[in-house]
Amino acid sequence: MGADSVRKSIRFILNNDLVELDDFEHTQNVLDFLRLEQRLRGSKEGCAEGDCGACTVLVGRLVGNDLVYETVNSCIRFVASLDGCHLVTVEHLKGQNGALHPVQAAMVEQHGSQCGFCTPGIVMSLYGLWMNNPEANQIDIETSLQGNLCRCTGYAPIIKAAKSVLAAGGQKIDPLLQERNKIQSRLRELVDNKRVEIFTDTTKIFLPADVDDLAEILLQYPDATIVAGATDVGLWVNKQMRQLPILIFISHLSQLQKLEQMDDEIRLGAGVSYSQAWPIIAEKIPQLDEFWGRIGGGQVRNMGTIGGNIANGSPIGDTPPALIALGASIGLRQGNKKRSILLEDYFIAYGKQDRQQGEFVESINIPLVREGDYFAVYKISKRRDEDISTLCGAFKVRLKGGKVEQIIIAFGGMAAIPKRAKTVEGALIGAEWSRQNIGLAAKLMEEDFSPLSDVRGSAQYRSLVAKNLLKRFYLETIGKSSDGEDSQVAQSAGAA
Ligand SMILES: Cc1cc2nc3c(=O)[nH]c(=O)nc-3n(C[C@H](O)[C@H](O)[C@H](O)COP(=O)(O)OP(=O)(O)OC[C@H]3O[C@@H](n4cnc5c(N)ncnc54)[C@H](O)[C@@H]3O)c2cc1C
Ligand code: FES
Ligand code: FES
Fold first, then answer.
1. Which of 10, 50, 331, 485 would disulfide-bridge 83, Cβ 3.0–4.6 Å?
2. CA distance 229 to 234
3. pLDDT recorded at residue 176
4. CA–CA gap between residue 310 and residue 353 (Å, rounded)
């Protein structure tokens, strides 16, 4: 790549100021940058792992002709990924002569803060909601707070504050919204479609110019770490102190963020975040709607990508079991070579996936649920919100004349990889879809899985729950809820 097509710095707007950086720690996170270098200490560090939301900031980025602001956890977001973005911190909410922003004023009036440690993060989450969704209802408010932990106030006054500021309106006179056009044109001026390279003797940062460039860089540096939403990689740095000498950032690549609706499937770029995918998923595969809202919290869903959830190969990632049950496939690319494989074949063994050196996940194809098929996914975790699965089970069945014509059962958290229950499936194919046969098949779960015991659950617990989920699925397909009550939504997904 020629020198004139490479930039040696990143550029972004911090509140009102243009920032250009060409020399910084390659794994530096946004929170450290704000607190230690910019002396902007409104954003707090609680957990440093994306869980508590005390560090919440807004990041605005150009999406087509629009400027979209999203809440993110600054503790796990890398500074390098801010190139071309508008970073908004709680300090920017201050009005003339230090006046409180309406969201802050509502928190004061409704007594939404006690020790105050969580408050800047909560204000930023509510600000993101107020700005993007003035019509927000109770569920929207609760969803916007999923990623914010308050240990002392309790959520009732915070929700009251959210309701009162939403009811008061006033978004039109909000400075950030008023300045939207100005910020948008300032961000457009930063777009030069160049590759970014920032090197030291021991580290390298790349921001590819486009997907072809990503493929080229990966061929040259097959051991580099791809960073998409950083909701996993950020923790490797903060918690495991991993060094990761070569980082390739991809969250700016719009070619990896395409969402396409075909007649019988959804095609997603690997860089599509959970939040970006949610509306189309909810509309086309409504059985996944509630489940989707249980992946992380708002900030994690705004950052984390489906491609990252698959590529990391985790046995407890939430989307793989659901996508395997739906028969999803993924597109992989190495240089100019492209191939497509079934998602279930991607996972080989713990820490081992069918991905070659220099290859990356480019896309995910998700077949829609056919009319008459039953599909459900159940996430079992210790907390309802912002928690990793203990296990996750996904089921899809096609019946013909009361018998099972096709069935896919996939679990996360039951083996070293997301895996199908093929023995159980085999016992059910061709069999009558009856309570008795489900009971018999469930007994075979142990032939498919020997789960581990860990802090989230014992092996016995996991085995028992897996069997019960199969029974629950059966009951739901025949119009009974798992406690025996008639169900209104025989084809709906549940989220335990
Ligand atoms: C607070 C918190 C809550 C969470 N809750 C959940 C949850 O409820 N359910 C759940 O499943 N997960 C959860 N996670 C984990 C995480 O959010 C997901 O695994 C997420 O999807 C990872 O995507 P990412 O874009 O952030 O990946 P990154 O962290 O950027 O990358 C993850 C891995 O994938 C690789 N990678 C990323 N994109 C590609 C690509 N296109 N091609 C090849 N390799 C790639 C990276 O190199 C890295 O190895 C949570 C994480 C946090 C911090
Ligand atoms: S410090 Fe807890 S989410 Fe960032
Ligand atoms: S006010 Fe103390 S943690 Fe929320």
1. 10
2. 9
3. 84
4. 10
CA 331, distance to chain mean position in Å, is 19
Q: Give the atom of ligand 1 at the shortest distance from the alpha carbon of 294.
A: 8
Residue 49: enclosing H or E segment and its boundaries?
none
CA 270 to chain centre: 12
Q: Of the candidates 276, 487, 288, 473, which has an alpha carbon nearest to the alpha carbon of residue 369?
A: 288
What is 3-91+180-249's CATH topology?
A: Ubiquitin-like (UB roll) (3.10.20)
Question: How confident is the model over 404-451, as pLDDT tens digits?
Answer: 999 999 999 999 999 999 999 999 999 999 999 999 999 999 999 999
Contact 207, 10 (CB under 8 A): yes
Fold match between 3-91+180-249 and 102-173?
no
> Which segments of 65-118 does DSSP mark as H helices, in order?
102-109
Spell out the residues 6+ positions from residue 357 whose beta carbon is closer than 8 angstroms to its own: 222, 334
pLDDT confidence of 380, banded at 50, 70, 90? very high
The SS3 assignment for 34 reads helix
- In the structure encoding, which two tokens stand for residue 198, read together? 């920032």
**Domain 374-477 has what CATH class?**
alpha beta
Residues forming beta bridges with residue 359, ordered by sequence position: 334
Residue ranges covered by each domain of the chain: 3-91+180-249, 102-173, 374-477
Pocket of ligand 1, beta carbon within 6 A: 49-51, 225-233, 235, 270, 295-296, 300, 303-305, 307-309, 311-312, 317-318, 360-361, 386, 388
Instruction: Write down the pLDDT at residue 483.
Output: 58
pLDDT of res. 485: 54
Which numbered ligand comes closest to the C-alpha of 158?
A: 3
Dump pLDDT digits (tens) for 174-213.
888 889 899 999 999 999 999 999 999 999 999 999 999 9
Residue predicted with more confidence, 184 or 483: 184
Q: Per CATH, is 102-173 categorized as 3.40.225.10? A: no
CB 126 within 8 A of CB 144: yes
Q: At what angle do helices 155-168 and 119-132 cross, to 10 degrees?
A: 30
Residue nearest to atom 4 of ligand 3 (CA): 150
DSSP string, 3-20: GGGEESSEEEEETTEEEE
Protein residue whose Cα sits closest to atom 44 of ligand 1: 311
Which residue from 124, 148, 153 has its CB within 8 A of the most atoms of ligand 3, so it is best to mutate? 153
Confidence of residue 482 (pLDDT cuts 50, 70, 90): low
CB 77, CB 126: distance < 8 Å: no
Residues 6+ apart with CB under 8 A from 376: 287, 394, 395, 473, 476, 492, 493, 494
What are the pLDDT digits (tens) for 248-260? 999 999 999 999 9
